[in-house]
Amino acid sequence: MVRSRDNSRPPEGGTHNFMIKAILMDFNGVVIDDEPIQLAIYRSMFADEGVEVSDEAYYSRLGMDDKTFAASVLEEAGKPADIDRVLELTASKTRKWRESIESAVPLFPDVENFIRKMSVEFALGLVSMSKREEIDFVLEKTGLTECFSAIVSAEDVLKVQTRSGVLSPRFRTVDLYRISRGHLPMTHDECLVIRIRRRVLSPAVVPT
């Protein structure tokens, strides 16, 4: 069970302007190092369609869910992007992705230890435009499911947004989780966000 403590003290000789009480994490590119794997799978799949997927084409579309990504690549290449074809491609991608990481989930070094330690002190939320089945697959394989009190996946988003655009509802979900355990509501400054953009830790500036 995730526990959340609010008893952190500022370092000697200094003060905190805010106190971190929760952490929201990106999934792909922060927890799991699978962007190169996904790129290789998509590149192979689209090559069969006569479409080249360059590094630029792939990484410029980060933040899209699989269906939007596939449709965008097909449309840009002037290929039919009907929903049946898109679903066929994304289902194939998920299957090949699972096969690729089945024997060894490519978590970033030390991230599992970090998540487990942080879940003792803070409420953790996971934010991703990946399918929920992919997120669950990784968390179950690594035993990290119980570390997160809130998870947002592509299915939770009504329209395509950048990853930062889906943080606000997850902030509220984590905040409600903490409140249900007797804590006072927190502010956005008290939530840390770890994103793929720079792969560094930074205080959250979460849109309302």
Topology (SSEs and partners):
Elements: E1 22-26, H1 35-47, H2 55-59, H3 66-76, H4 83-101, H5 111-121, E2 123-127, H6 132-142, E3 150-152, H7 167-180, E4 191-194, E5 201-203
Parallel strand pairs: 1-2, 1-4, 2-3
Antiparallel strand pairs: 4-5
Overview of this structure, please?
With 208 residues, the protein is an alpha/beta fold. It folds into 2 domains: 22-33 and 107-203, Rossmann fold (3-Layer(aba) Sandwich); 35-101, DNA polymerase, domain 1, CATH 1.10.150.240. It contains 7 helices and 5 strands. A 5-stranded mixed beta sheet has the order 3-2-1-4-5, sandwiched between helices. Strand 4 and strand 5 (201-203) form a beta hairpin. The protein is elongated.
Short recap of the structure:
The chain has 208 residues and is an alpha/beta fold. The protein has seven helices and five strands, in the order βαααααβαβαββ. The protein has two domains: 109 residues, 3-Layer(aba) Sandwich (Rossmann fold), CATH 3.40.50.1000; 67 residues, Putative phosphatase, domain 2 (DNA polymerase, domain 1).
How are helices and strands ordered from N to C?
EHHHHHEHEHEE
The CATH homologous superfamily name of the largest domain equals HAD superfamily/HAD-like
The number of helices is 7
Share of residues in strands: 5-15%
Shape: elongated
Helix content: 40-55%
Question: How many β-strands, per DSSP?
Answer: 5
Query: Which strands sit side by side, in order, in the main sheet?
Result: 3-2-1-4-5
The gyration radius over C-alpha positions equals 19 Å
